Amino acid sequence: MKTAVRRARRAGATLGAVLTWAGLVGATAGCDSHEVLGKPRAPEDMIRVTPDDASKNVKGDGTLQVEVPEGRLQSVKVVRIQDAQEEAVPGRLDADGTRWRPTGRDADGLALAAQYTVDAVAVDDDGRRMARHTTFTTFVPDERFIGYVTPENRATVGTGMIVKLAFNREIENRAAVERAVRVTSRPAVPIAPHWFGKERLDFRPEKYWKPGTEVTVDLNLRDVEGASGVYGLQHKTFTFTIGRSQVSTVDAAAHTMRVVRDGELIDTLPITAGAPSSTTYNGKMVVTEMHEVTRMNSRTVGFGGEYDIPDVPHAIRLTDSGTFLHGNYWSGSAFGSANVSHGCVGLRDVKGGSSLTPAGWFFDHTLIGDVVEVRGSTDKKVAADNGLGGWNMDWREWKAGGAAHS
Predict the structure, then answer these.
(1) Do 259 and 355 fall into the same domain?
(2) Domain boundary among 218, 243, 268
(3) Among the entry's GO cellular component annotations, what is one (predicted)?
(4) Neighbouring-strand partners of residue 122
(5) How much is the pTM?
């Protein structure tokens, strides 16, 4: 009887051992298993991902990292999905393999309105491998801001071009926005920012650009908080090239304009400038627009009903307030002898315009970004924010207008 009991106990013990082994093998065979012949370990204990799995509305200043308390990470793959586009997030493991952190744009902050997926594989100190998959989403802002860039992408412009960003709303955190915009050139020269109020940020070098310079504007504004609850939208790169040098000097008192190309005088043209009651600004101005023909109405620039000309030929804008250098077919013999305009600089032309007139010739030899400097007028110097008038500031004054001095 005792023998039978002992046999039954041994059989039970053997069966228990078999069942235990089968249970372990079965556990390791499952596709979602995370224990291997040892103490069970949850993936979230072995592979720790920040932000937590399934987190929502994660702020842009949140930290993204993957780490293990023991062992080492074998691989980490992170994907950012934003605006229906997937992009791998670059990153780097620490030397001991215990922590992964992003490099590139995500190192400075998470993209907003995005979903992130993290797939990590680690090996513990006993050689056991484990994988973990997590996802999280970031905060979706209700309000955005953008910057409109001058000049146009891939343009060839004159040596006086100033990079201008006009924002669609007021920027309170100017230093943060300024740091998110990078303007570089080849060959390299110092380039400095200057704010005009809260909605405009300009960049220029100390002196006019050298011909052939390639300029790159990197806008890393996306998810930068420009004002409380208002975030940037753009992550773009613009480039433009500096063409030949051309600086034209208007002498309002002598009624002439000297056109200097690459250091050589190529022509002197007779002009008419602003009459004594409506003088032309002095100072350095930059060509920002060119129109074969345009309408000019005195009421749009603060005058009464003095004029409304529907077909002004060869119109070249110099200021935002309405100063143009343009063709003029109605002022008779004033060119070279009298100032009769309402503040613009006029060149002789014919109705409908002609490339054979001084106005047509100058128009055909002008680039956006060329400099026109007016001297000899009795008016004040043009304001630095009136068009691209920043060249009227000295370098020290210009640099003082930046917000991010550190």
Answers:
(1) yes
(2) 243
(3) extracellular region
(4) 73, 130
(5) 0.75
